[in-house]
Amino acid sequence: MGVAADGGRLGPVRLAWAEPSRREVSLSLVDQQRLVGFPPARQVAFRTGRDLLTGLIRPLVPASGWEVTTGACRHCGQLHGAVIVTGASVEVSVSYSAGIVVAAAAPASDVGKLGVDVEADLPDPVRDAHLRRLLGGRSEAPLRHWCRVEALLKADGRGLRVDPATVRLDDPAYQVRDVAGPPGFLISLAWTWPAVSVTLPGAARG
After folding, report:
1. Most Cβ neighbours (<10 Å): which of 88, 113, 140, 188?
2. Distance between CA 112 and CA 110 in Å, rounded?
């Protein structure tokens, strides 16, 4: 599969993907502490994601002093929230699926919010039926629709605290795009422009 040539790009966003592999990557103290509680396969994928993000950010921020780390959860304040960059104005997102890690990055001057999602595109009628229920009975390509919704919810920041069935992919505040990724995977990207400050109207879960 390999990493996307020169990081790949869609609109203002740079992307990269790779199979999870053992990598030497400098981790923040918070990420080191989180890594201890992960099973081995998750540790490998996590390190791969941090390495991909670091590679995407370097051309954007040639100066030193920035760090990829885990942010605070916006609901409980604990340090298990979304991936962030400290010391630089860069928006990032990372997604994991069986056999692949996908990373996305863009200058904060170009995007306001950013989310990426990847799904392994394997036939699975049970999964598709479950996704149709979650998405409010939509019959069209449920996995593709789910991938787009997940990317948008990650950009929004509330994730699955919002009912997926209420999410509108045609919300003009968000750009939602499918990415031409490697065979066997679906990748979707969502972002807002920097001047746009939006919150999805979807109902939050308890």
Report:
1. 188
2. 7
Q: What is the DSSP letter of 204?
A: B
206 found inside a domain: no
Total domains, the chain: 1
**What does pTM read for this prediction?**
0.90
pLDDT, tens only, 85-111:
999 999 999 999 999 999 999 999 999
Provide the phi-psi class of 99: left if phi over 0, else alpha when psi is between -120 and 50, else beta: left
Q: Is residue 201 assigned to a domain?
A: no
Q: Report the b/e string of 35-57 with b at 16+ CB within 10 A.
A: eeeeeeeebbbbbbbbbbbbbbb
Q: In angstroms, rounded to a whole number, what is the distance separating the alpha carbons of residues 7 and 123?
A: 29
